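Action item from last meeting closed. Structure (348 res):
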């Protein structure tokens, strides 16, 4: 009887377990069935936990939170953290590197610019107007040419009138006078010259004589671009013979100053004692300073007076003033040289 009751009880337990398995099938990896202690028939479903091998779920620390983006960027160039300041340091270093790069770039550009400029040894032109060199080659070449000629480029230039004419000075005749003539062309091609204007200034640059001359021949080239002479000026001018006599009277017994005076005397059909001629084109110290045998009046004025003349149409008054100013600049030395030369000739 006892055996029958035990078998019945086991069959009932087996049936109950079978029904439970059908109602709650186990999922692999999600839960576990743990039999009750002391023969308890109830089935306990274990909750999944993050147990470590040597600790309980309660003791296990929570998962670490992901690092913020700032932490990822707050690193210096060598990979170390900079506590939030690394970004600013990196930006600052970037600006410094950028500035250094710009300085190097500008320095390289400057060196290239210097290399492109003409070398001083390459500018060797003699008796060439620096303005012509500037037009053909460039301003740097003209600057070198002016320096080679000794032209003053750093000084502040005064007006031509201030340099060539002495204010509040005598307007009458002086012991030395300067003369210049403007000419026009005659003949088939206009190559021959006749006088069209005569201007004379005293030692202080004051004009004492200025007249246009009526042409004695048919003018074929007025040379206006250079001479500044126009038909209406000379057609109503003074008679040549009158001008010739008046000029001769002024020059008589005086020192005659001018530039390339042989041309002026030639068109006036006049002569003057050689010992009383002071020609700025033939004065040796001037030629040595500008390094040319036949310096132009324009070049001498730029070199010695730091003024520009003959920039457009020529003016015989201004040219005479320029020649006189060059003479007074070297008057003492010039007259001493003439006197010594005369004494040497007398001794011989």
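Sequence:
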């Amino acid at each position: 009887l006892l055996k029958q009751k035990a078998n019945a009880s086991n069959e009932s337990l087996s049936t109950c377990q079978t029904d439970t398995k059908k109602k709650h099938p186990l999922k692999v990896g999600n839960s576990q069935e743990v039999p009750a202690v002391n023969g308890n028939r109830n089935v306990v479903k274990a909750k999944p936990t993050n147990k470590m091998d040597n600790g309980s779920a309660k003791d296990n620390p929570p998962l670490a939170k992901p690092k913020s983006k700032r932490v990822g960027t707050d690193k210096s160039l060598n990979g170390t953290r900079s506590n939030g300041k690394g970004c600013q340091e990196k930006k600052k270093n970037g600006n410094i590197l950028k500035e250094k790069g710009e300085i190097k770039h500008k320095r390289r550009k400057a060196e290239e610019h210097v290399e492109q400029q003409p070398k001083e040894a390459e500018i060797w032109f003699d008796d060439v107007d620096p303005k012509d060199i500037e037009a053909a080659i460039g301003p740097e070449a003209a600057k070198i040419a002016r320096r080679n000629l000794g032209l003053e480029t750093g000084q502040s230039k005064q007006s031509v009138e201030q340099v060539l004419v002495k204010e509040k000075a005598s307007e009458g005749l002086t012991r030395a006078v300067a003369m210049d003539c403007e000419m026009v062309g005659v003949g088939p091609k206009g190559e021959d010259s006749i006088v069209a204007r005569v201007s004379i200034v005293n030692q202080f640059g004051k004009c004492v004589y200025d007249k246009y001359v009526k042409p004695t021949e048919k003018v074929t080239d007025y040379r206006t671009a250079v001479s500044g002479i126009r038909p209406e000026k000379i057609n109503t001018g003074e008679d040549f013979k009158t001008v010739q006599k008046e000029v001769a009277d002024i020059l008589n017994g005086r020192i005659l100053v001018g530039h390339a005076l042989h041309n002026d005397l030639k068109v006036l059909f006049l002569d003057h004692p050689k010992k009383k001629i002071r020609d700025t084109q033939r004065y040796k110290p001037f030629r040595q300073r500008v390094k040319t045998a036949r310096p132009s009046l324009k070049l001498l004025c730029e070199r010695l007076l730091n003024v520009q003349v003959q920039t457009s149409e020529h003016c015989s008054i201004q040219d005479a003033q320029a020649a006189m100013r060059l003479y007074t600049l070297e008057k003492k030395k010039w007259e001493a040289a003439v006197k010594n030369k005369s004494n040497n000739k007398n001794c011989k």
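Note appended to the action item: Strands lie at 33-35, 43-45, 176-186, 192-201, 207-212, 219-221, 255-258, 277-279.
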